[in-house]
Structures are given as structure tokens and as C-alpha cells.
Design brief:
It comes from Amycolatopsis arida. 39% of the residues lie in helices and 15% in strands. By secondary structure, it is of the alpha/beta class. The chain has two domains: 236 residues, Type I PLP-dependent aspartate aminotransferase-like (Major domain) (Aspartate Aminotransferase, domain 2), CATH 3.40.640; 110 residues, Aspartate Aminotransferase, domain 1 (Alpha-Beta Complex), CATH 3.90.1150. The chain starts with 6 loop residues before the first helix and ends with a helix.
Length: 354
């Protein structure tokens, strides 16, 4: 890895074997145990060459030490595992429902105290840095695509005597869109299930931190918790990562175009689009109209999740954990199909409700 390589180059070149005669790609190594006396003994504790290649590549992109986990949510468990019982965690009122559910559960069980703050209320986040032990940020938020002022919050946290740890869920932005460690965050987490994997065929998560001691703690949490990635999943995630820069650029162009078109359609009340990235959310009059649009699409798939090469829509308020989301809001993950075909599909479904 060369320090002067751009992020685009790192996505392609980092985490590859370098010795003569080795394959260009680390193979899938399905191993639990290794012959005694070498650098690895047991994979849950010591990792595998396949996980290590993925971790090296993500670490090179985010600027820290990466650890791969079985899923995005397993990274949250690890981050919480290294906190003392009774710690106070600040989380967004509205963000990925799975994250909020884990924290609600920990609070009910009496393990943690939780403060909930509106994503865009920067003053409240800044004030909370005085009282809390951990700040969990997500930006843009899932599914309402609100932007959080990360530098303002990390600067406030750094200035407090209790120095709360700041964690950023970078799943939507990806390291190509934003590198939170360079903005003062202590830990970055990813659901590589989404854009990094990019093909809706795996579950995997990663933590990244520039602090070697904290990286060791998170790795120890993985060893204790046992939420290790599968061999095939790690290999596929790395394979997906190689094309992340071009997928992001292409799907991002389509998302910008479709956000504009959506805003002009009479059936659409509000378009939420942060100006970059592959996610768009649009609001229809009510739940029934949104359900009819989701059911009326033929090319765009009606399915949960996001970040794959195939475009997907979902009415998030239909999910138990997202009842606060506007009833008519459709989350739209823009993929790599021809944007002209995507718009024809959308326009036909929208014309039928509007
Ligand atoms: C999907 C998602 C997660 C959880 O990831 P899994 O891989 O499903 O466990 C976390 N954060 C965000 C923003 C997500 O979209």
C-alpha cells in the first residue's frame, strides 16, 4: 500500500498478496484451525487470510485498523461490549431501526442508559458530549437521509474532560464519500452487507479505528462474542469492494437524475436526497399510494435492504421499528440499471397513483 494512492486505487489494490507466484486475490480459506507453531492457531481468535485481506483493504480506505464481523449489527454489539455497565450512549432518535432496537433492549435490560437526539439538532449533540460516554452517529440516516454535523460533534467530544467516544455508522456514505476518522471520529462501522458487498448476496460488518489499543479491544470483543464472518462472505465482500468506486459513481449519477425527475412528478410530495450517494427517499400522499407504487414497479424490485447493483424500494413505515417515518415515504436504493429504464418504471407506477 502506497500512502499517496487515491481512495479509488486503494479499493482496487489494497489487500492483495505481493509475493512472486501468489494468486492476485487471496483465496477463500475455510479454516477453523491451523497447524500449530504458525502465526494463526484458531480462526475465531486469530482470523483467516481471507478476513485479513478484507480488513487490510477497508483499513486502507478508512485510515485505520479494521476488524470484520458477521454482520453490521455485530459491530454494534462489539462497540457496546467494550463499554462498562451503566454507560450513557447518545443515539439518533431516527436512524437505522436495528441499531435503535439493540439500544432499546440494552436500556430495558438495565445495561446502558440511552439519550435520543434528533440527527440534525447539532446543538443538542454538542451539549450531550458533556454527559455521555459514547456518541453513535449515522449520516445520512436510514431511511430519512438526514445529514449529521460530524466535525462539530467530534470537536465538542474532544474538548470534554470525559472525552466520549464517537462512533460513525458510515454504511450509506462509504469511505469513498466520507472518512469519519479524518473528521475526528474514534470508530467507523459498516454494514458491508450494503454498498461494500454491493450484490445483496452476503451479510458482513466491519469496525475501523486508528487507535491500536481500541482496535485490540474490538478484536477481543469479536473473539469473546464469536460473531465472525464466513469465509465466502469475506471473500465476496472484498470482491465487491473492488468495484465500489465505479458503482458509487454510476449509481450516484442515476440517483441525482432520478431525484430531479421525482421532484417534478405531481404524485410526489417531498424528495429527500442529500446531494450525493445512491439513496433517495420520496414521499407520496399516504401509505396506500406508496404501497401501490411499490407493488406497481416491474424493473425496480420491491425488497428490503439497499446498496446492491439492483434497484430496490421499500415503504419503511410499514416496518415495526420505523413507525415514526412518514407513512408515504418510499426508500429507493438506486442500482446500476440504465436510468432511463428506471425512470420509465417509476413514472408508470407514479402516474397510476397521481
Ligand atoms: C443494514 C444496516 C445496518 C445493519 O447491518 P446488517 O449487516 O444487516 O447487520 C446498520 N446500519 C445501517 C445504516 C444499515 O443500513
Amino acid at each position: 500500500m502506497h500512502d499517496d494512492w487515491s481512495l479509488r486505487t486503494r479499493a482496487v489494490a489494497a489487500g492483495r498478496p505481493q509475493r512472486a507466484g501468489e494468486p492476485l486475490n487471496v483465496p477463500i480459506v475455510p479454516a477453523s484451525t491451523f497447524a500449530a507453531g504458525g502465526e494463526r492457531a484458531y480462526s475465531r481468535e486469530d482470523g483467516t487470510p481471507t478476513w485479513a485481506a478484507l480488513e487490510e483493504a477497508i483499513g486502507a480506505l478508512e485510515g485505520g485498523h479494521a476488524t470484520a464481523f458477521a454482520s453490521g449489527l455485530a459491530t454494534l454489539s462489539a462497540v457496546l461490549d467494550v463499554l462498562p455497565v451503566g454507560a450513557v450512549v447518545a443515539v439518533p432518535t431516527f436512524s437505522y431501526a436495528g441499531t435503535r432496537a439493540v439500544l432499546d433492549h440494552a436500556e430495558r435490560a438495565g445495561r446502558l442508559r440511552v439519550e435520543r437526539i434528533a440527527p440534525t439538532n447539532t446543538a443538542a449533540w454538542v451539549a450531550a458530549t458533556e454527559r455521555v460516554d459514547l456518541v453513535w452517529l449515522e449520516s445520512p440516516t436510514n431511511p430519512t437521509l438526514d445529514l449529521v454535523d460530524i466535525p462539530a460533534i467530534t470537536a465538542a467530544a474532544a474538548a470534554r474532560p470525559r472525552r466520549p467516544r464517537v462512533v460513525v455508522d458510515n454504511t450509506f456514505a462509504t469511505p469513498l464519500g466520507r472518512r469519519p476518522l479524518s473528521l475526528g471520529a474514534d470508530v467507523v462501522v459498516h454494514s458491508a452487507t450494503k454498498l461494500i458487498g454491493g450484490h445483496s448476496d452476503l451479510l458482513l460488518g466491519l469496525t475501523v479505528t486508528a487507535d491500536p489499543a481500541l482496535a485490540g479491544e474490538l478484536r477481543a470483543a469479536r473473539t469473546r462474542g464469536g460473531a465472525t464472518p464466513g469465509a465466502l462472505e469475506a471473500w465476496l465482500a472484498l470482491r465487491g469492494l473492488r468495484t465500489l468506486p465505479v458503482r458509487l459513481a454510476e449509481a450516484g449519477r442515476s440517483a441525482a437524475l432520478l431525484a430531479e425527475r421525482l421532484a417534478e412528478h405531481p404524485a410526489v410530495r417531498v424528495v429527500r436526497y442529500p446531494g450525493e450517494g445512491t439513496m433517495v427517499a420520496f414521499e407520496l400522499a399516504d401509505a396506500a399510494a406508496a404501497d401501490r407504487v411499490c407493488a406497481g414497479l416491474t424493473l425496480i424490485r420491491h425488497a428490503t435492504s439497499l446498496g446492491g447493483v439492483e434497484s430496490c424500494v421499500e415503504r419503511r413505515a410499514a416496518l415495526a421499528g420505523d413507525a415514526h417515518v412518514p407513512a408515504g415515504l418510499v426508500r429507493f436504493s438506486v442500482g446500476l440499471e440504465d436510468p432511463a429504464d428506471l425512470w420509465r418504471d417509476l413514472a408508470a407506477a407514479l402516474d397510476r397513483v397521481g
